[in-house]
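Hi everyone, sorry if this is the wrong subforum. Our group has a chain we'd like a structural model of before ordering constructs, and none of us has done structure prediction before. Sequence below.
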Amino acid sequence: MSASAPTTDSKSLGHVREVFHEYITNEMPINLLHITKHDQKISFKLVDRDFIREHFKSVPTREDRIKERMVAGQAEPLYHHVPKEVPDDHSASKKVPDVAHRPYEPGWKKLEDFCCTAKDVHDCEFAWSDTCCINKTSSSELDESIRSMFRWYRNSHVCIAFLWETADLAALRMQEKGGIDKKAIDAWFVRGWTLQELLAPSQIKFYGTNWEPLIQDSMNDRDDELTDISMDDLRSFTPGTDRVPEKLFWASKRRTTRTEDIAYCLIGIFNISLMIAYGEGNRAFFRLMEEILKRYDK
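Answer:
Right subforum, don't worry. Here is the predicted structure as tokens:
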């Protein structure tokens, strides 16, 4: 007795599932925070791509429904928050256990507030943060994360930016415009890694000291009053090796703890490939410029 040949529908479904799995492998972060809520209590745990595959395993049979499901899923997973206590140098590893509540350690309260905001305000089931979703003890994972970070932000539904030093909108508008009191400048606006957070996502939402939105009645806080970057770039930035002096000027106002990171944080901005090699110091920026010059387009 011979087995029946697979139907056209089953072949199509198999193909779409294959594409879906490839998308998860190539376009989604290696690790995510899975956020759930039961009885008004938020829980979150660190999950990997295999978990995401299983989570979306019961896909619909029609290709258009699968596409709809994928869009709905991708509207959830990518968010970003950098607790002040976690270094800016990608040198520390922070694991998130499979529990929701524990005595607060440095940074834990901010991470919990971030997850609550992602779930309650933005209705998100998944979130991403470079402070806990990258295993910095793995050189391969760190390398992939740095090279892919701009794309992950670009694919995200929204980027949540926590400005812990900023209390209100007036203080926010002093940031990069250079207020009289230089102490008013929030650390978020002078970090090298946050430049791509500002440019890559389709939406960004600023939250202040007490996790209150700094700009009310807005789900996308694009505002050229906050920065010298043009509104056209804030709305639809295209990475590439054009307008190099202008992009380097944006980066010149920002700093990183590790010398190499001032180059690595610009990989996505210029859309180039660069090997990650901590310990090379200023050589990283020279290599960045070499790659840019190879494809420079005024």
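For your construct planning: Residues 272 and 291 are 7 Å apart (CA to CA). The first strand starts at residue 31 and ends at 38.
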